[in-house]
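Backbones bend. To wit:
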Amino acid sequence: MNLVIQSTTPISDSHLRPLAALARSKDMQRADDTLLRLTEADPLQRPDIDAYCGAHGLDYAYVAPGAALADFGLVAMDMDSTLITIECIDEIADFCGLKAEVAAITEASMRGEIKDFNESLTRRVALLKGLDASALERVYEERLKLSPGAERMLEGARAAGLKTLLVSGGFTFFTERLKTRLGLDYTRANTLEIVDGKLTGKVVGEIVNADVKARTLVETCAALGIEPRRAIAMGDGSNDLKMMAEAGLSIAFRAKPVVRQAASVAFNFVGLDGLLRLF
């Protein structure tokens, strides 16, 4: 395998010899000062590479020689804390003074400590009952920011011929705006019920949980005429695990430990555009 090492800052020459020894690599190429590619690396050395890179703020990935981004046909992304930096429901809750309470439930759910995502979401949305719907617009305009490298990653994916899917346990209010803003091909999320300009504390229709996320990826691949192994899935929370398991390549982005352990690749430091630099 090729071993790709990435960093947000120049990779010091002092790392070259230890990395080559740990990887048992035959050759090393510097693509630029923040990217190394070690050829014929031994994947069984992953635990040692993981420990070294974690200690030095480096991201790594084992990539098959000759693999190309164009081998894939779809990149599927979670929204909250993946494509964007915030958890929208936590920020909405801030407008009714309940951010800490809602954020605690969100964190426990994403870490896999609350097994029933439907119950977790229902509990959190119920706390928003009576909030003026204008709070959603304020969250979008004032607090929502794209994760580092998001637009560059999407541009690169499109240039390689991939379609884009945003599938979220969050809300259509945000996914539809991001679809228009970023030119995404497909979106799937939950719909908040709004009556007379206020949130009712309910979600309309089927909740987008882990199973629905995975099903959406598979169905989108079928619509595109490709196998799920030709999909890339990116996420950060436990409700992304089933979707990531369906994909041929899974990326844990600034993710919870349970997700990092299950993913093909973990980006703990670099931006989403680290995807492009793997190939």
About this structure: The chain has a mean pLDDT of 96. The radius of gyration is 20 Å.
